[in-house]
Amino acid sequence: MPWPRQKRVKDVISPIVFEASYSLGEHVIERGREDKELSALKPVLRWKRGQKIAQRNQTVFERNCQSDDCAADLKLQGKLLLSGISLHANPSQLPEGIAGQGASNLVACDTCVDDRTAYLALGAVRNISLNIFISNIGDDAYDTNVFFNFSGELFFIKMWQKEELGIACELLESDFLRCSVGFPFMRSKSTYEFSVVFDTTHLTGQEETLTFLVTAQSGNLERTECLHDNTLILSMPLMHEVDSSINGEVFPSSFFYGDSVEASNFVQLENHECLFQSLNFTLQVYNAGPSTLPGAFLDISIPNRLSANGAEIFHIQQMMNLEFNKDGKDCERPGRSCLILHCNLSSLAKAESCDINIYMLLNTEILKKDSSSVIQFVTRARLQVDHDLRVVELPNGSPEEKAVVFEALHNLEPRGYVVGWIIAISLLVGILIFLLLAVLLWKMGFFRRRYKEIIEAEKSRKENEDSWNWVQKNQ
Fold first, then answer.
1. CB–CB of 220/142 below 8 Å?
2. What is the rounded CA–CA span in Å between residue 467 and residue 168?
3. Which strands, in side-by-side order, build the sheet including 314-319?
4. pLDDT digits (tens, 9 = 90+) for 145-174
């Protein structure tokens, strides 16, 4: 009879069983005319009690065993490959307390992180690859399999091997993968290398670490003292890598104040005689990084007093799009008090922005008490990521601080007390100049000339000339 043909034998451990049996088939007798009166006879098999009409035999697969129990000794090594950067897990390189953990046999990869990286940036990497090395230093290992347990947010893409080595992978569940290695058996003293590739684009970052549990098993017996390197853990921290920046502006960027400025240009509140200038601050927070910004803190510093003991200048009317709390402390310049707004920002996806509008009123009556003609206000906004949410900023990224400047200009008309000072100083300067000229003339002898003698001499000279002219006329 023909044997059934199979492309692949799945079981090379159990022996092949052969069984042969015999039985009577359909027995037909052609009767002649002379035998019409005889009844039909039914044939039977004659066999003795205790014997069987079937015969069974089995063929056992021959194994190449150097030990009596044909024990295999599998050893796993692996590393994570991520954009040319790898995390290694070699049990022989781990501290003694980790390499020999008894029955758990787990290899902690946290102690073998490559110096070039320390995390997986969510959204920046599309694929992650597990490069697996499995070796057998015992007898031939039959029906060898490598099992992978991984996060349900990962998706298996493919298995890759440099050359055809009889490795095949099958996804048993969404988070469980089995790879058959070296079927039907893995030879003694042999090593296989293959890579398993996963899609990471659906990682949400809810888990702090991406962990792979890899286990190797075979159909052979394996001694207990050799199981410590059959299981390894490959892990990589998950981080949100962002490039946050902040921009801002204020409207109006400058304004005039003073007694000659019309009151209609300002805002007057009920039960207040003071005039207020309305200001609108617009800040925009932008995330240019590859990952989602799960949360951040925004501190806005506004100079609120002209002097340490002066009155507060600003009054916050409304702040849009977020909640805040305010505080007062010294600004960068000692003795200058600032109004500090602490804001909590919500999640911000890649290439998204968040606009923050602050409506404030400035008391112009307080500015009139200052003698400056131009008062410049510098408002600083500083953005800080929340490191507790595993957020890191890209190196050499956009600045996280922005300074917004606006100016208060006096109407350039001198105040009343200024006019009085100008008049007083002008009179004083005029008197000083007059005294200086008087002293200078006195030093030159202007006030010491004999004007009376000169006038009398000139008078007598004229009288003599008149008398001389009379004598000449009489002669």
1. yes
2. 156
3. 244-251, 276-287, 353-363, 314-319
4. 999 999 999 999 999 998 888 899 999 999
